[in-house]
Predict the 3D structure of the following.
Amino acid sequence: MIDLHSHILPGIDDGARSLDIALEMAQQAVDCGISHMVCTPHIHKGYFDNSPSSIKPVFDKFVEAVTNASIPLTLSYAAEVRVNELIPVWFKQGELLFLGKHNNKQVLLLEMPHSHIPQGLDVLIKWLLRNNIQPLIAHPERNRELLAEPHKFTWLQRQGCLFQVTAGALTGRFGDNVEHFAVSLMQKKAFHVVASDTHDLVRRPNDMKEAFDVVAHFNPTYAKNVFIETPSAIVQTAPRQPE
Ligand SMILES: [Fe+2]
């Protein structure tokens, strides 16, 4: 499996707190059946002010540690970018990081606030698509406005977004409401990718194996599509470390 969303890089957001923990998370990912992971630290203005120049050295050091520990996991890096008005500016400055490509568009892992759908999101999405950037919305199933008014998911679909559901949402880690919403999206085959969004070993571990079983029980072809084929096609164009 390919894991497109993880907070495994140590010490630069609310994910792994140390290199040792990050290495254990890498092993946990391998134990789940993951062969390639994209490290996606938060870029969240005022909270986690990461940029390509802050992420790359941490990534390089982590790759070296994973290689030295002989953990069979290949890695690339991008970011989970919180919706904000500076995204077009960052793009022009070359400060945005992408997961890879989908239909020749660069894929941006875009995070909404957890509480609501931000005003002007439609304008941002149109701008992104016009600039050959494909927004992949992270964990829509945990957005409280979408949970309360699920018909708004259809509105987001019409804007041209892709969707990444978090593995733990399908296994009940975030409670019944989130699980029911995630399962309803699965039944409509409405998401494109499942990823771990792992932050640590215990509270937010890697749930990809269990989540794969949930989706495969529903439809093995769809499971293969959202855990392997689509994420694999996206990362094929991203920088990868040698096997
Ligand atoms: Fe995340």
Observations:
- The beta strands are 2-3, 36-39, 42-43, 74-77, 80-82, 101-102, 105-111, 133-138, 162-166, 193-195.
- The chain has one domain: 2-235.
